[in-house]
Write a structure and sequence with these properties.
The protein is mostly helical and 304 residues long. The protein has helices spanning 14-47, 55-89, 94-123, 133-184, 186-213, 218-229, 231-241, 243-273, 279-303.
Length: 304
């Protein structure tokens, strides 16, 4: 944290030192706001170049982006967020980090259940009571097929909502980290913001893929990602004014953010990849998942 002694060169009198401290503190806050805003918005716009592709190319590229998104989400959770959470909490609190991770997965499971119920309720996809299976198949086969399709659409919509919630939380935490770096040193804050932006670009590409896969339009996907990127500014401001309190819970909040990425990758994206079982598609999926993981690993290594 900053102290008055850090600015003793500003003046010899107490009044001048006090004024200089507050002026530089205000400058630090402005730096935090500008860098968190730039880091979030620029990473979204860079990833949003995907939206400029023609329709046919997007349809061809989208399944590949889903594979890439799976790797990016897994890499961000397992190679970046969880290790940082354990390191920040300390080995003596590693079990608490694990509890936060499990609690986060349970939270997103319940949240997805609620979103599925809401979407099914809106689309009138009521469940059928159990009965005679043969009679049900004879009289309601087409009806059931329609409900199955509606349920699948509801799962896609829920995936998009979950990735937005997880990304918003992740961006808040990024804002807190940027604030902590700026309160240590301005140059460290700038480097940290640039590293986070580089780290965010592949993840935002994955977010676009998930949102488009869930049926969201291109324009709405861009707007939603820009809005979630603004939560980094909130995290930066909160981190500036309440850094010590934020750092106490930061490792466990990071674990919850990791759980959201893990849940979306494992529960929503991977099952969809299994629908294509031909060797060419399977090999492509594995390679793109590996590319997503490798890119996150490279960005994480560069950040250190």
């Amino acid at each position: 944290m900053l102290s008055f002694t850090s600015y003793s060169y500003c003046g010899r009198t107490r009044a001048r030192t006090f004024a200089c401290y507050h002026r530089r503190a205000l400058n630090t806050l402005i730096w935090i706001i500008l860098c968190t805003l730039a880091s979030g918005v620029l990473s979204v716009l860079a990833a949003g170049t995907f939206l400029a592709l023609p329709s046919k190319q997007r349809e061809h590229v989208l399944p590949h982006l889903v594979s890439f998104a799976t790797g990016a989400l897994l890499g961000a959770a397992l190679l970046a967020l969880i290790p940082h959470a354990v390191e920040a909490a300390g080995m003596e609190n590693v079990h608490e980090v694990g509890i936060a991770l499990i609690a986060g997965i349970a939270l997103f499971f319940v949240l997805e259940k609620f979103l599925l119920w809401r979407h099914c309720h809106d689309d009138h996809c009521a469940e059928h009571p159990l009965g005679d299976e043969n009679e049900h198949n004879q009289h309601h086969q087409g009806h059931d097929h329609g409900h199955a399709h509606q349920h699948e659409q509801a799962r896609k919509k829920a995936s998009g909502s979950l990735v937005l919630v997880g990304d918003a939380l992740h961006n808040v935490l990024d804002g807190v980290l940027i604030a902590a770096a700026f309160l240590t040193d301005v140059h460290l804050g700038i480097v940290t913001a640039l590293a986070i932006m580089a780290h965010e670009i592949p993840q935002e590409v994955g977010n676009f893929a998930v949102l488009l896969h869930s049926g969201v339009s291109r324009r709405r996907a861009l707007v939603l990602n820009l809005l979630t990127s603004l939560t980094a500014v909130i995290g930066g401001i909160v981190g500036y004014f309440a850094l010590e309190e934020a750092l106490v819970v930061l490792p466990f909040a990071v674990a919850v953010a990791a759980s959201s990425l893990l849940y979306v990758a494992v529960a929503d994206l991977i099952p969809g990849l299994h629908r294509k079982v031909d060797p060419r598609s399977s090999i492509t999926q594995v390679l793109l998942i590996g590319v997503g993981i490798a890119l996150i690993a490279f960005a994480e290594r560069q950040a250190h």
